[in-house]
Design goal:
This protein is an alpha/beta fold and 365 residues long. 24% of the residues lie in helices and 23% in strands. It has a 9-stranded mixed beta sheet. A 3-stranded antiparallel beta sheet has the order 2-8-7, with no helix packed on it.
Length: 365
């Protein structure tokens, strides 16, 4: 945490903080629990102390909006083939040296937040654009909890779903508030050792595992997991066996797992790209541990990106990158070959958005 100028006048009162006996205020949104004096910001940069409360300085402000395929989040079992209106803000509560969105998540410049929209305007824009859902992404939405939650409620009122793309680094007291109105989440499980999280993210693994357990067993939020495989850091066979066994035993065999290829970026440019063979090995390990839906990402791999029936092994959803090439499901999500239902949120025929990417300005919607 660091000193900074006072937050913007339109900063929004936070919902999770504690006034301490020594006069400081503790932010209770994430496990960092930053304690702040007046005028200070937390490590995330966007939550700040203003007088006697913690405020969100980026409420109603975004780094931009774009309509993406839902598979890009990545979510393969949630409204396949449909468009999602995506946006993020600035800042992050982790310090990942390998961040693939560092220009947004590590930003300390409020003037890059060019688009402004209240929650109701985002929900209405999604409906007018034909997006079936709104995604809080690009940076971790946990740090803009109030904006994300209010937007999720506004979306529900208009029949639009919401998605959180998050590292899951959130406190138990904020967890229910954050995920309560959110329909689906992709949680970034960055590695499976405390050493990895300490060394590369300045964080801890345990709170992330607790979030995943809570989502799987105590929430109505559909959950998928992504792990970015970094050569020499989190791609060890023993670690992958331990991680995928834990997912199977603690979360269940139907939780989809995405292994994504790393590319050199931010503060980790000394590592090479993840070989396709590493992704294939990880996928095989996960399937050996009993996980039914394991995917590869950031590489061209139709076999590793398609969805298969857990009952008969038939291709249920064929994919070429983000484009659906085959659909072998009934409208209620059952395999047309054997009748086995696919775990997930399947509603009617597939969407046909494909791999289009459509940047939008809400003021023009």
């Amino acid at each position: 945490m660091s000193d900074s100028p006072a937050p913007a006048p339109d900063a929004f009162p936070g919902r999770h903080y504690t006034r301490l006996p020594d006069g400081q205020i503790r932010c209770d949104v994430c496990p960092r629990e930053c304690t702040l004096r007046d005028g200070q910001r937390g490590l995330c940069f966007v939550r700040a102390r203003q007088g006697d409360e913690i405020v969100l300085t980026t409420y109603g402000r975004s780094s931009g909006y774009c309509v993406d395929p839902i598979e890009k989040k990545p979510l393969n079992h949630f409204l396949p083939g449909t468009p999602v209106l995506s946006f993020g803000t600035a800042g992050c509560n982790l310090t990942c040296k390998f961040c693939q969105n560092w220009d947004i998540s590590k930003s300390r410049e409020m003037d890059r937040l060019m688009d402004q929209a209240p929650p109701a305007a985002i929900a209405e824009a999604a409906r007018e654009l034909g997006a079936r859902s709104v995604a809080f992404t690009y940076n971790d939405p946990v740090i803009f909890l109030e904006y994300a939650v209010d937007t999720a409620h506004a979306c529900r009122e208009r029949g639009v779903r919401t998605v959180a793309v998050t590292a899951g680094y959130v406190t138990p007291q904020a967890r229910a508030d954050f995920f309560g109105p959110i329909d689906a989440a992709n949680v970034d499980l960055k590695g499976f050792t405390e050493g990895f999280y300490r060394k590369l993210c300045s964080a801890e693994l345990k709170p992330v595992l607790e979030t995943l357990q809570w989502l799987a067993h105590e929430s109505d939020t559909w959950v998928e997991i992504t792990t970015l495989l970094i050569p020499g850091e989190n791609d060890d066979t023993e670690e992958l066996v331990g991680m995928t066994k834990w997912i199977h035993d603690e979360l269940g065999p139907d939780v989809p797992l995405h292994f994504s290829a790393f590319h050199p970026d931010y503060k980790m440019r000394d590592k090479g790209r993840t070989p396709s063979a590493t992704l294939q090995r990880a996928r095989a390990i996960a399937k050996d541990q009993g996980l039914r839906h394991v995917y590869t990402g950031n590489v061209h791999d139709e076999a590793g990106q398609s969805t298969y029936c857990a009952g008969c092994g038939e291709v249920l959803i064929g994919r070429d990158w983000y484009r659906l090439t085959r659909w072998n499901l009934t409208d209620d999500g059952a395999c047309r070959s054997c009748g086995e239902h696919l775990a997930g949120v399947i509603e009617g025929p597939p969407g046909d958005w494909g791999q289009k990417r459509l940047p939008v300005r809400l003021s023009l919607v």
